[in-house]
Amino acid sequence: MIEKIKLIEDKAIRALDSIKNLKELELFKVEILGKKGELTSVMKSLMNVKAENRPLIGKLVNESKEKILEKLTSVESHLVTEFKRAKLKKERVDISLPGKKVETACEHILTQTMREIRDIFMGMGFEVVDGPEIESVYNNFDALNISKSHPSRSTQDTFYISEDSLLRTQTSGMQIRYMKEVEPPLRMISIGKVYRPDFDVTHTPMFHQIEGLMVGENVSFANLKSILRTFSEKLFSQANVRFRPHYFPFTEPSAEMDIECGICKGKGCRSCKHTGWLEILGCGMVHPNVLKEVGIDPNKYQGFAFGMGVERVAMLKNKISDLRLFFDNDIRFLKQFK
Ligand code: DAH
Predict the structure, then answer these.
(1) Residue 215 placed within a domain
(2) Residue 319's domain spans which residues?
(3) To which H or E segment does residue 315 belong?
(4) Which of 122, 145, 245, 335 could be joined to 105 by an S-S link, Cβ 3.0–4.6 Å?
(5) For the segment 277-294, what is each residue's pLDDT rounded down to a tens digit?
């Protein structure tokens, strides 16, 4: 028995010396130390050894096992180091190779446009306010003097959330919110997303609007023209503007403002559909019904309001032909506006 143990030990140590890789080492572990391994079977056969010899033999087996394990650990750690070194050598990274570029564009042209417009009006004393995109039917339509039968209220033109709430179709509701909180004299603009169920070259279901409002004791249509002409001069470098009569339920009188086409200088070209003018915004004097609705006396105060689409402004200013480009996230388009 003692000899057998010694033999297994010698064989194991020699085997360990000749092991060349981790795979062989695994096999060795099974053969010698595994459940059916040689050393394990010697342990098992201890039962057949006479009781008085058992402690001695047991001790010998344990000592042998320890020696083998010690050797095994050192062989294993050596092989692991070797393995890692070989792997690193094989997978060598060529740090002189050019890296993969992370493409970046720049601030979105719509964000740039909104900031420019905002700064112009802030410079003229307008307060910038924010409002919710989920709006009440009251603020979006009723309080703005829009009749119950107005077609813009239909489900074809408005995303309803419930009977009395919707995704705002215009930023004009901000006039109501603001006038209910702030006493005149007041000047505000509000910029944000609006929603309408449309989708083609000139319409997207979500787009951006800027709303403006000024109310005071002596605010006149002349003030409206002056403020909006100044705006056009600053944003488009174009002081040639014209006001055409128009209709909006919440203003009276109402108008649309055009700027002279910068491409043909008013002569008429494809860009301006041969009219020489580009339509920029809607505006007018705040309707007395709207003032009454928010508790402002129309006999004491007057005001003007205006609204414009940010996408339209950005398209005209940068000669962009398709509205959908703003939302396609094509870096080739976006990075042109650095
Ligand atoms: N809300 C109008 C629209 O969506 C734009 C507009 C026109 C706003 C005239 C105004 C205004 O404040 O006075 O078409």
Answers:
(1) yes
(2) 109-337
(3) helix 310-318
(4) 335
(5) 999 999 999 999 999 999
